[in-house]
Amino acid sequence: MRVMAQLAMVMNLDKCIGCHTCSVTCKQAWTNRAGTEYVWFNNVETRPGQGYPRTYQDQERWKGGWELNRRGRLSLKAGGRVRKLLTIFANPLMPSLQDYYEPWTYDYDRLFSAPMQADAPVARPRSLITGEPTKISWSANWDDNLAGDPSPDPVLRKVSGQVTLEFERAFMFYLPRICEHCLNPSCVASCPSGALYKRSEDGIVLVDQDRCRGWRMCVTGCPYKKVYFNHRTGKAEKCTFCFPRVEVGIPTVCSETCVGRLRYIGLVLYDADRVAAAAATPDEKDLYEAQKSVLLDPHDPEVAAAARAEGIPDDWLEAARRSPVHKLIFDLGVALPLHPEYRTMPMVWYIPPLSPVVDVLAGTGHDGEDAGNLFGAIDALRIPIGYLAELFTAGDPGPVRAVLRRLAAMRSYMRRLNLGQDPDESIASAVGMSGA
Ligand code: SF4
Ligand code: SF4
Known about the structure:
Blueprint lengths: L2 E10 L8 H10 L12 E5 L17 H10 L5 H11 L6 H4 L3 E3 L2 H5 L11 E3 L26 H7 L1 H8 L3 E5 L8 H5 L5 E3 L6 E3 L9 H5 L5 E4 L4 E4 L4 H4 L6 H5 L5 E9 L3 H5 L7 H8 E2 L4 H9 L4 H8 L2 H8 L4 E2 L10 E4 L22 H4 L7 H8 L4 H22 L6 H6 L6
Parallel strand pairs: 1-13
Antiparallel strand pairs: 1-10, 2-5, 3-4, 6-7, 8-9, 10-11, 12-13
Helix pairs in contact: 6-7, 18-19
The chain binds iron/sulfur cluster (SF4) (2 copies).
C-alpha cells in the first residue's frame, strides 16, 4: 500500500441556485487577463444542456485524441512556426472558440455618441477578441429555460394529456464544475513537454508555465475539457485549486464565496498502487465502486502507519479523519464522482439533486419523503434517475437510487426534528442511518 494525500471537493447539487458567484469570483482572482477572456476555471452548467465547452461530454466527437496526442509527441523535434503548424495538424480535435463562446462586451459609447434620432440608441455587442461588432450566437447556459422532458412513453403521454405531463415532468438543475484534479490525470499523461504535473503532497494538478510549449494536447486529452489555452501567452492554464490560498489554510475562492454553501473541501487518503488497476476496471458500471475502493479509511491503524511511513504528517492525518469529503463519501454514502467512465478518477464528487419528490405518474402528488412513500416514490423523481446515472455512475441506476433514498430519509428525519416532532426511526434505520 502506497498512501498518498489528495485535496478533494464535494458539491451538494440540491443547494446550487445557479447564481454564478463562484464563477465570477474565480474569474476575478485567476482569469481576469487578456488571452483568457473566454476562460472559466469554474463554470456552472445548466442541466440538461450542452455544457461548456458545448458537447464536451460527447466523447465520440473527441475520439482519436489519445492517438493524436501520441503522434504529437513525435513532432516535438520541430520548433517555432513549424511546430505551431504541426500542432494544428497533429491535434485538430480541440474545441473551437465558438464551442466555448465568443466573449463580448457592449458598445456603451454608442449610448452617448449616437446622433440625434427618433429612438433611444442601444449598446450593441462587441467582441472582446476582435473588438468588432459581433452577433451572439451561443454561450454557456444558453439552455437555461429549455429544461428537459424525459417523458419516454408516447402512449402514456397521449393518455395522460401531453401538455400537462410535459410540464410536470420538465426538469433542470445546475452543475458547477472545476478541474477534477484526477488521480489518473490524462492531461498530465498527454503533455509532450512534461509541463503538467500532479503535486505529490496534495494531488493538485498544475501547469508549469516555463515548460509549457503550447501544444494543447492537454486540452484534447482532458475529457472534462478543463484545460484552457491562453491565446496571448501561448500557454495552457487551468484551475489551481487556489493552491496559494489552501497552503495558508483558507478555502478556494469558489468555496468561500459560494452563496449556497454547497462546497465541502477536505483531504482524502488513497492507495497510489491501486489507481492504475482501478482505472482499467473492465466494466464501466463497476467504475464507481472501483474508484471508491482506492480511497482509504484514515481511521484504520494500518492505513495511518502506512501514511506515516510515506511521510504524511500527523496533522494531515488528523485533517483526513475530520474531512467532510471522507464523511460524505463513506460515512454518509451520499457523494458520487462525475463521469467515472472517463477513467481519470476524478476528485470532485457530487451529492446528486433530490429535487421535489412528487409521484407525477401516479397522480397522487404525494410528498415522497413521508414515511411509507419513501421507497415507492423515489423512482418518480422530477429528475429521472437514469439521467443522473449517466452523469455519476456510468449509467448504473442502483447507486444513484441508494443515495437519493438516503437523502430523502435525511430530509424527512431532519424536518421532523426541526418541527419539534419525534423523528421517524423507521425511516432512518431503513437506510442505515439510525440515530443520525
Ligand atoms: Fe487534468 Fe482534466 Fe483531470 Fe483536471 S479534469 S486533472 S485537467 S484530466
Ligand atoms: Fe451554485 Fe454556489 Fe456557484 Fe452560486 S456560488 S452558482 S450556489 S456553486
